[in-house]
């Protein structure tokens, strides 16, 4: 616990105000800022409240308690100021920053769980459709990023699987190539890849250029020759020419 009182100002330290729909983002802001200021222990329960009085007679105020109380009230005020008008009544009667924090966690925990279910459902049922490859990948990345932000991240391999299973049929040959390369890499680096992983897929960033090239080839081909053009896509050429590596690829 810092000996000096750290002054906090809600607009400066917590510029994102808490609303009914942005709790994960707001919580991350609060936690990151307090970690940087070495104050997280005030709200996470790891800092015990000092005794209010010194000695057995309970007549002299404990200086450690005074420092703790001043810092805690400064933090409580900043948290209150970082909440929107609709949220403030939830914590207006809290007597400590931890009590305010716990009330907000309790109020929004169920909402966060519902959001996780909603995002995972959307990730699994978000076909590319008429969207461009760039739009589709950005949308899928955004969903994955939001899941990570609310402390429920998905692996890169799982994200790739969600992506390739929701592409249109015209991408089938490219998807087959991706799966083939994944299987080859798994066997090539099997001593360095966890056994529970059946494949080693390329990273989304690595796939994007190939998917966009494939998209361009298909869109520029006459309808009658699209199937032939798909088979001539250069995706396999790139992955078959990957340089030799002594460690698992960084995909």
Strand arrangement within the widest β-sheet reads 1-2
Mean pLDDT: 81
Report Rg: 26 Å
Structural class label: mainly alpha
* Strand composition percent: under 5%
Give the count of helical stretches. Answer: 12
Poorly predicted runs of 5 or more residues: 192-199, 225-251
Order of helices and strands: HHHEEHHHHHHHHH
State the total count of DSSP E strands. Answer: 2
**Share of helical residues:** 55-70%
Number of domains: 2
Broad shape: elongated
Distance between the termini: 42 Å
Largest β sheet strand count, sense and barrel closure:
2 strands, antiparallel
Protein name: Gag-polypeptide of LTR copia-type
Pfam families: Retrotran_gag_2 (PF14223)
What can you see in these coordinates?
The protein has 251 residues and is mainly alpha-helical. The chain has 2 domains: 10-110, no CATH class; 126-240, no CATH class. Helix content is 57%, strand content 2%. It is built from 12 helices and 2 strands, in the order H-H-H-E-E-H-H-H-H-H-H-H-H-H. It has a two-stranded antiparallel sheet. A hairpin with a 5-residue loop joins strand 1 and strand 2 (60-61). The longest helix has 28 residues, at 97-124. It is elongated. It holds the Pfam family Retrotran_gag_2. This is Gag-polypeptide of LTR copia-type. It comes from Artemisia annua.
């Amino acid at each position: 616990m810092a000996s000096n009182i750290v002054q906090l100002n809600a607009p400066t330290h917590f510029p994102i105000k808490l609303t009914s729909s942005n709790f994960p983002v707001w919580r991350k802001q609060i936690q990151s800022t307090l970690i940087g200021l070495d104050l997280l222990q005030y709200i996470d329960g790891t800092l015990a409240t000092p005794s209010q009085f010194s000695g057995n007679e309970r007549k002299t105020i404990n200086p450690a308690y005074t420092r703790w109380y001043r810092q805690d009230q400064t933090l409580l005020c900043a948290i209150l100021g970082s909440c929107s008008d609709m949220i403030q009544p939830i914590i207006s009667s809290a007597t400590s920053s931890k009590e305010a924090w716990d009330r907000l966690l309790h109020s929004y925990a169920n909402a966060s769980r519902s959001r996780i279910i909603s995002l995972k459902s959307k990730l699994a049922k978000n076909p590319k459709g008429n969207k461009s490859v760039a739009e589709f990948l950005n949308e899928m990345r955004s969903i994955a990023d939001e899941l990570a932000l609310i402390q429920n991240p998905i692996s890169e391999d799982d994200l790739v699987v969600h992506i390739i299973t929701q592409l249109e049929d015209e991408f089938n040959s490219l998807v087959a190539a991706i799966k083939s390369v994944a299987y080859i890499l798994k066997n090539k680096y099997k001593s360095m890849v966890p056994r529970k992983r059946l494949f080693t897929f390329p990273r989304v960033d690595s796939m994007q250029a190939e998917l966009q090239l494939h998209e361009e080839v298909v869109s520029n081909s006459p309808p009658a020759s699209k199937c032939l053009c798909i088979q001539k896509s250069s995706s396999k050429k790139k992955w078959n020419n990957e340089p030799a590596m002594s460690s698992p690829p960084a995909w």
